Amino acid sequence: MTWKDKWRFVRKNMKKSKSRIFMTVLATAMGVTFLIVLASVGFGLHDSIIKEQLQDRAVTQMEIAGLETEGAFQLITDKQIEELENIEGMRAVTRRVELQQTPSFQIEDYEGSGSTVVAHFPSEIEAGLELSEGKLPENDHQVIVGHHFAQNLHQANVEPDELYNENGEIKDEYQYSESIVGKEIEMMITQMVDGEEQQHSISLTVSGVAEAPARDWMIDTTVFISEAVLAEVEEFTGTPRGARNDPDYPLPEEETLGYHQVIGYADSLEEVETISDMLKEKNYYVYSVADELSQINVIFTIAKAGLIFIGTIAIIIASIGIYNTMTMAVTERTQDIGIMKAIGAHPKKIKQIFLIESSYIGVLGAIIGTAVAYAISILVNAGIPLIISGAMGEELPEGFQFSAIPWSLVAISTAICLIVTILSGLKPARRATQVDVLKAMRREI
Amino acid sequence: MIEVKGLNQTFMLGKKHNQTKLQVLKDVSFTVEKGDIMAITGRSGSGKSTLLNLIGGFMKPSGGQIFINNQNVSEFNEGEFSDFRLQHIGFIFQNFQLITSMTAYENVELPLVLKGVPETQRNELVINTLAKVGLADYQNHYPSELSGGQQQRVSIARALIIEPPIILADEPTGSLDSETEQDVLAFIQQLNRDYGITFLIITHDEEVAQIGNKQIHLHDGKIVKEELAR
Ligand SMILES: Nc1ncnc2c1ncn2[C@@H]1O[C@H](COP(=O)(O)OP(=O)(O)OP(=O)(O)O)[C@@H](O)[C@H]1O
Ligand SMILES: [Mg+2]
């Protein structure tokens, strides 16, 4: 018997009980839709959260906070930097030292403040620092400023009440509006000497402005100064890193001095994991996006498996319908089956015909169910942000999706649907092969 | 062609704990040669249908052996017997056993479909076979739209289409009036003459038995008379 003929048999049989088959396919499709839509929420939220995680940080980046030596925490120093830079797969290691006070900066009659750091430019460049304007410093008194440094400058003689608008931002009319590149700025540092505040001013020239940070809500007002300028500051304050003599904050001891912020950049996300594992082994305090991602991945994988399991129950319920439909089909066709067997139909062929029929119901259910699930998913993704912004007045982050249907989910649900439908069709199909020829033929008499 | 050796058939009757044995066939042995028309006669309940059902493979004998074409078919399993039937045996039943949801054409085509004959070759064969039984104009009629004699001719066409060496017939004229009966019998004789098909025909009608060249008479499951007619 050719497959074409078997198929013809199946189609003919299904046509005879159209409404019954329709209801069974409907139930199966509903089960598949339920499974996919349910699990798609897990997939969608997972994707969205991963996207959130990756948006503001480079994936290949790992923060190296310090090192544990003989049970004590220690900041990273040049000795470790050398070791870190020699690790295979490590593209760059940036290190920054923060000035221990926040100086104010003045240009003409504008002023503002910003955290001030000493950075190692060759490694920053390799790590991907880009300038939106200007160029890198060529001498010790040239500086790079953060993208928002200029915007943060305001007219010096304005009352604070007048200066800010209702959102806490500096009003446009008081903002510094020209390009800052090439301009000379004064860095004002202070120190308490015998209970009196002393001021010192250092002239610097802005040679370039850094590219804006990845996320549009992040504000970067950092000023990158050179080692030489730091030395000048330290000379004035008489303390390491320009710290003020604050009785509440004792000065750090010389030995613990090190870099405040050390970031390693790996060549790829995969390397991040190996490098950070290796560093952890060597008692470094390492933190990378990969750590967080693997935790998130574990949680979501469990959640997705749970949702798929619950969805599978819906398909199993639908399979009861398939079982009933197929059992009825076998009972109805007992006489035909008997005649076919009498003529010489091999039991295997009869079994196949019924299995094709139940699988076909499963395939139809899977196709229709998947199509409907896609439609629902699109509606949910379009509708949920509207509902949330309407009901709670909150905006979801851009690109946030509640429900996602990747191909893997379609494949999983189709596989589950087919397995379940074939299993539920097995018993009726076996029953068809067991039809007794003589009993079946005697019926009509 | 067909050799039956020491065939016994026993049925268990009644409920599980109170079963009685009923021996329907007792040590039945006979031989059918190629080209024979063998008539099996006997009273109702004498075991004629049981004998034919055993030869056709619809049930397994309790004892004894059946050889068809020198193959011990009593050892076949269900699947093997299906394939064997499809190649070697055509059936004609008293109540035709046509599939009611199929047209005459489709019923006759069925054995070819089961055999896996490609669609393109089937059409000519079916039309020719229907023409042979005089039903060329009735291809698209459903069994319910045909007379008893026409239905029996469809079932004969269905048996013929695989060109079997053997046709087993259980009361082929039992549901027909005497005039149609004559047509069908004449047709059986013609097939036997023209194609050398071996027939095994059950009947309780002496007139029908007359078309056979051999006859066995069953009584209470035993062959009581075996004769060469004419
Ligand atoms: N499946 C069965 N189970 C139990 N007993 C059976 C079965 N089939 C037949 N019998 C018994 O075997 C005996 C012979 O039956 P069989 O059908 O062979 O008779 P027959 O000669 O064909 O009669 P008829 O001319 O009425 O068709 C009967 O007594 C019947 O009750
Ligand atoms: Mg009988």
From TrEMBL, chain A:
Keywords: Cell membrane, Membrane, Transmembrane, Transmembrane helix. Its main location: membrane. One of its GO terms (cellular component) is plasma membrane. The keyword Nucleus does not apply. The keyword Isomerase does not apply. It is found in: Cell membrane. It comes from the Bacteria. It is a multi-pass membrane protein. GO terms for molecular function: transmembrane transporter activity. The chain crosses the membrane at residues 21-45, 298-323, 360-384, 404-426. Residues 308-434 form the ABC3 transporter permease C-terminal domain. Belongs to the ABC-4 integral membrane protein family. This is ABC transporter permease. It comes from Gracilibacillus oryzae. The lineage of its organism: Bacteria, Bacillati, Bacillota, Bacilli, Bacillales.
TrEMBL record, chain B:
One of its GO terms (cellular component) is plasma membrane. Residues 2-228 form the ABC transporter domain. PANTHER family: ABC TRANSPORTER ATP-BINDING PROTEIN YTRE (PTHR24220:SF648), IMPORT ATP-BINDING PROTEIN (PTHR24220). The keyword ATP-binding applies. The keyword Transmembrane helix does not apply. InterPro entries: AAA+_ATPase, ABC_transporter-like_ATP-bd, ABC_transporter-like_CS, ABC_transpr_LolD-like, MacB-like_ATP-bd, P-loop_NTPase. Gene3D superfamilies: P-loop containing nucleotide triphosphate hydrolases. Belongs to the ABC transporter superfamily. It comes from the Bacteria. Keywords: ATP-binding, Nucleotide-binding, Transport. This is ABC transporter ATP-binding protein. GO terms for molecular function: ATP binding; ATP hydrolysis activity; transmembrane transporter activity. CDD domains: ABC_MJ0796_LolCDE_FtsE.
